Predict the structure.
Amino acid sequence: MDLLLKGGILHDPVNDWEGPAEILIKGDRIEAVSLSLGPVEVPVLDLKGKIILPGMVDIHAHLREPGNEGKETIATGCAAAVAGGFTAVACMPNTDPPVDSKEIVNYIKERARQADLARVYPIGALTGGLKGQEIAPMWEMAQEGVRGFSDDGRPVMNGGLMLRAMQFALVLGLPVISHCEDLSLSGDGVVHDGVHGYRLGLPVIPAVSEAVMVAREILLQQKVGGKLHLAHISAGESVALLRWARESGINLTAEVTPHHLLLTEEAVEYFNTSAKMNPPLRSSADRDALLEALQEGLIEIIATDHAPHRLQEKEADFLNAPFGVTGLETAFPLLWTKIVEQGILSLSELVKCLSTVPANLLGVPGGNLTPGSPADLVVIEPHKEYPVNTDSFFSLGQNTPFKDWRLKGFPVLTMVDGDIKMWEGKVKGFSKDFPELKGLFIKQGSK
Amino acid sequence: MLPKDMLSLKDFSLEALQEILQRAAYYKKKDGDVFSSLKGKNIAISFWEPSTRTRISFELAVQKLGGRIINFIPELSSEKKGENADDTIKTLQSIGADALVFRHSSPGIFHRVSQFVEIPFISGGEGCYQHPTQALLDIFTLLESGVKLSGLQVVMVGDILHSRVARSHFYAFPVFGANLTLVAPPVLLPLELVPPGVNWSYNLEEVLPSGDIIYLLRVQKERQGKSLIPSLGEYTALYGLNEKRLSLLKEDACLMHPGPVNIGIEISSGVIKTFENVYPDRILFQDQVRNGVYVRMAVLDLLLAGRVI
């Protein structure tokens, strides 16, 4: 639809815009961005006091479908995405069956099309069945639109296989996303090898189990030189290796999650399973190293690692409860309140981490509001504070350690392809009272 | 008021622990008398891990206090997930148990289930997390032997990493004023585990001369599949208490062990014989077992009464 967004403050780092802007949307595209567009014959949406950003692109989410629709479906995951201000989501292939063939890729794309909310970019498996034994049909999946390859959740322990998969991905021009974990070091661990985990008598996932694989991937990348992306970095040792890679001129990207930026191993006290994830929450020194890496630009992407589970699964014993936390609906308010308002990153820097860099890595539209590009954007309410209410999540997963945290910066409008998908917490196709938009707009008197 | 449950000694003040120990001393002194403080009470005992002494001493404690035992023996082979224990606990509560005594291999399970259980929940050992009554009976045994806990040097040797007894003693020994030194090879002694104020060493011979109490922990044979150390033989060569190392001990040093003892691994049979024959007052293994009954009587009594008197 055609629409004029008026009165908001735009942050678009690609176009170096930080300030008031009027944005004219024609159909599914950004038509014009200007300080003042003058009178136009389209409905006007007054966004006074609000912030407008390019839609966020989550490079790391688990949408669970096919196979685990009790935890999440592509539709509910996409609803959670637009509720959280994400206009695009890359979904990891550890479904059942895993995404290791064109049929599953197409199934996911079809389900995403039916949901008609966020853009969904499947990530294909790196190895058949995620078994770490044979390289998956990467070309075939690339033809159907996967935007990267990963065995996320199951690290590729065979270095030779990883090398050869990276070499093939180079030809396809797509990133390989590595979940860095040496299973021989992490074993049956469930928590960080720090004070809290050891006191609780729980088996540990040592920081070094991540770092040794980060080192391996960096050295493989030095040899191959394609697009390598390291998922959910959690350890200070890994940050030191990223710094070495940068100084050595080895190009790669890395991501960090909001929970690793904001929480430490302390959160597992009292065997709190909502703080059980892999990689685990680590020490405050690790957390500080991650924040520093973010500021330095060693880590350029923030991804949610959205991993929904049924409540009763998370209510199991710490050893048996599944790893993972939901993230799509809390990421932006957390980062706005705890990172931007605390002065750790500017809003434009945050937009790069959440939108521009991930869009570039995936090679997809988004990450900026340049005229001519798809009208994918999000509007943020920066001042009002609300508690995180898991009951109102669109995700089927309520497993978050941030329940009841009081946050600002909740998205109030998410638009994909010029179509409003979320309005004040209501999601198209999900909320019965998703508003009849026309009534909300102030018609501009034509002159 | 006492906490409802005994999952971790940390939930108990020093005064509360002293009250329990005094009650245990009373029961030991009056041994043979008939008590009825658990008369009409049903104590459910369910051990989801093998146990001999802890289980039997809880059973005996209930009987000596005139209570009834509901003995639930789980099908240990199907014990894989927490759900089974949950159902059992709910069932035991519904059929009228007045308290639950459980052992389980999964750390944290008791914290979780105690939230939906209204009756006292007493840990008989929870994974690698805590074994509160063992630590209490150790303290009782030391007090009874007449040693002064304040300033006492306790050297604890063995598989600290996997020991719930050690984790309970991280609180118990210091709160009673004793100094604790942990000794093990690095793989069994991650330094992140060592609490503030507790000493550690990788070298047994270096610390043996300082110990008033040498507290030996079992090196668990069942963990050897993980190849944590080259072999039990090599462990024994470095950390076993053998005849050669006896000369390093203080002349009044006492030996303790939570059992069961792996003779020939953490302690040689020769050392045990020497102590049993020559210094019977300095080997406290059997006293620990014996005192377990009185300490558990006190715990049951006071937790079911709901307060320290």
